[in-house]
Amino acid sequence: MGFKVWNIEKFKETARRAAAEGIVMLKNDNNALPLADKSSIAVFGRSQMNYYKSGTGSGGMVNVDYVVGIYEALLDSKKYKLNKKVREAYEKFVEENPFDVGEGWASEPWFQKEMPLTDKLVKDAAKESDTAIFIVGRTAGEDQDSKNEPGSILLTDTEKDAIKKLTGAFKKTVVLLNVGNIIDMRWVKELDPSAVLYVWQGGQEGGNAVLDVLSGKVNPSGRLSDTIAEKIEDYPSTENFGSDKENLQCEDIYVGYRYFETFAKDKVLYPFGFGLSYTDFDISCNAASYDKSSGIKLEIEVENTGSVAGKEVAQVYVQAPQGKLGKPLRVLAGFAKTDILKAGEKQVIDFDIPKYWFSSYDDSGLAGHKSSYVLEKGEYKVFAGANVREAKEVFTFEVAKTEVIAKCEEALAPVRKFKRIRPEEACGLFATTYEDVPVRTLDPNKKRDKNLPKALAYTGDKGYKLKDVADKKVSMDKFLAQISDADLCAMMRGEGMCSPKVTPGVAGAFGGVTDNLVKLGIPVAGCSDGPSGIRMDCGTHAFSLPNGTCLACTFDESINEELFTWEALDLRKNRIDALLGPGMNIHRSPLNGRNFEYFSEDPILTGKMVSAQLRGMHKYDVTGVIKHFAGNTQEFNRHHVNSVASERALREIYLKGFEIAVKEGNARAIMSTYGPVNGIYTSSSYDLLTTILRGEWGFDGIVMTDWWAMGNDFADQKGSYHNVAAQVRAQNDLNMVNASAADNSNNDNLDSQLKLKNLTRGELVRSADNICRFLLKAPVYKHMLGEESELDKELKEAISSEDADLLDLNELVVEKDVTEIDPSLLSCEKGKSTNFVLTTPKRCQLKLEMVVKTEGQPKMAQVPMSIFQDNNLIRTVTLTGMDTEYQTIEVELNPSFSFNFYVKFYFGQAGMVFKSIKLIKTKDLEKMFARE
Length: 932
Ligand code: BGC
Prior knowledge:
Blueprint: H1 8-22, E1 24-28, E2 40-44, H2 70-77, E3 81-82, H3 84-96, H4 119-128, E4 131-137, H5 157-169, E5 172-178, H6 187-191, E6 195-198, H7 206-215, E7 228-229, E8 246-248, H8 257-263, E9 268-270, E10 281-291, E11 295-304, E12 313-319, E13 331-337, E14 346-353, E15 360-362, E16 372-375, E17 378-385, E18 392-399, E19 403-407, E20 419-426, E21 429-436, H9 444-450, H10 466-470, H11 476-481, H12 485-491, E22 493-495, E23 508-511, H13 515-519, E24 524-529, H14 548-553, H15 557-573, E25 578-580, H16 603-618, E26 623-629, E27 642-644, H17 647-654, H18 656-663, E28 669-672, E29 676-677, E30 680-681, H19 686-696, E31 702-704, H20 724-730, E32 735-738, H21 750-755, H22 761-777, H23 779-784, H24 790-797, H25 801-807, E33 810-813, E34 818-821, E35 833-839, E36 844-854, E37 862-869, E38 872-880, E39 887-892, E40 900-907, E41 912-924
Parallel strand pairs: 2-3, 2-4, 4-5, 5-6, 8-27, 22-32, 24-25, 25-26, 26-28, 28-31, 33-35
Antiparallel strand pairs: 1-6, 7-9, 10-11, 11-14, 12-13, 12-17, 15-16, 16-19, 17-18, 20-21, 23-24, 29-30, 34-41, 35-40, 36-39, 36-41, 37-38, 37-40
């Protein structure tokens, strides 16, 4: 089809390139790779049968047209002779041990039973094939973390035994890690395979990306976005990870390489930024200078000194003087990937590094400037090279007098006393010592009360529409003055999941969620998970992207931007305004269950990558809801566990990536986390969402909660799902998600707090202003006005007929005990399907009761009808041509926990005739969900 902008082939090609660029090669003895054409290969590991395109949960539920696994890619390339017997053995094994999908949300096991290898299978395979490939597979997801156990971050005995047998029998053994996040790597030394590569979870084109690297079409240029230490106990976070109550971040700013390079170099197996190539590079510095006003300038030259073309990542680190505050010995201050350099070719890269990025936050006042970013006096060293360990000193400069780079206000400081580590120098080496963490001296509630926003008095309807604001006929203030308190409260309530007001199957709807708001010309925007592509629970297909860790390991902003330009078009195609992602929390511990969605242990790398992705999305007016702001470093008990961190660690590590995304990526939307930081739920943290985010960083977009999040009013007060007033007061504009905003279905406290004067109209108006300004920039604004651009028209054409069917839904509200479905709505012809979106204002269980017969069919004809709920087959009912009398068929549906869900009737053959279809309530499930 002759589309001008949309080009699915280019999207695929970009995703494939991005996934390949993220692959990190850790070992390649005797040039085991690339594989020569026609090599004979035996592929082991059950993940050859179920390539993990992404993790599970909201970050992975993209319905796709296809997934290219590693085996399929190798096979389809026709470059290699693949061992059939080994493949057959796995086929049989998987038939007998099918993939365990678990039951319900977040229950898919993160590891599937592996096939033990017999000596005979290995020996026979080694006679036929030169190379063994072993694929290790792991997934991960929400609500739980990885464990220091076999099948999680450790290899199982079966996996180890398999690799051992393979290395003993084959000339070459290549281990591919199809995992979301780094795992324990001690086995590499023990089992000594020829090559080891992290291929991550590369999205639906992931297998092709692996093929490109194995074949040498792409020279690996991925670099580790995390430090791989010997064992999990070596990470300083491990001691304070996994509690169900509070995690003290005693390691403070010494996260990842900042810790290891300062205190424990010998514990590192693979340093941050490390990754091998099929060629060699030399990185040198041609020129360097420091300017008091603009910061560090460097001219770095990268030369390909090997024999094949490839890309290198030049990395720049700064070592600030220890001063009074103590500093890590290395802080990433810049990085850049070269173009493809031919053998012998050179490229010069200019770095401009502002002082702010290597300044330190003085939360104690020890450096003499409490609550300020400072450059302490002393010698600064600049290093450049291929990774944090190899980077060589290229330049030093002196700061004569401690300098204040930015003056802030104490915000988000801990209320609880604890100790943090800091370096103590002796004979040029650094040991850990402990100091008291400065605690909060300013009460955020007092700041809030001092800065209450004012709003115009309520005027009632003056006939202004949101368009009049856009057309500059009326000010936003006057427009908002027309809205009653009750309608303002409703605007703070996002709806979902799967609201029929927006694209079917997406997670949330916000803006004009009630009739009154619609009358004011406020459009209703849709947002969907994210981040690995669009999740539409009714089954609509979308494109699935490589995971966050893989994209971070590209160390390449341009490929991230390009990829998300395509993602933007996928969003536009599906009429979605915002993707719930990128997820950008810091990999504090390799154990966090959602690390696969997140990027790195380093905030600058994270922030730059996210900014690039946002730039890509902004090209077509959609955006990303960057999440989870902030400090979600553990999934276990994530609604409750308190992250206790110093203000310095928050600002230098956990908030920094978000800061870059706001300042450089022009982020327009943010999702707060479920849990508290320093006692206050992030969704109701005035310091986080107002003092820092909006006040210091100048963010002027929207903040939404995570789905069904709590709020509290002061540190260590128990969180409540109803305390939405606390969220709005903090400037968390949208409480996600409600079944009905108009009916206040979550029973929030907005109206009551307003009456009690604990919440002001000004605060509601301020959030309404944030929401309306966001909506004016979103594609839905023009859609609401009926304006259809050439791009919209083109993208409509690009929707497959199957997906178009899903977009065309019959809406049905199931309120009564018995709800009739009009049978004439069903298309019962062969191959046709009819879709319904059912809204159950109260959670309940339903059954379908259908009175049905066949008509006009030969006696032996089979007439099947399949019923799907949210894209899962519930039952196939088959009548025959003999069933000409009406009969009653009952089909029990799955419990409806989320208010909206989809039912699809699919007819494999024509001939069914319905007399009636009823939805009957069989159980009330509301009580199960009563929230505090
Ligand atoms: C996740 C979010 C996600 C939301 C909507 C939550 O469970 O934490 O990241 O966007 O669900 O699916």
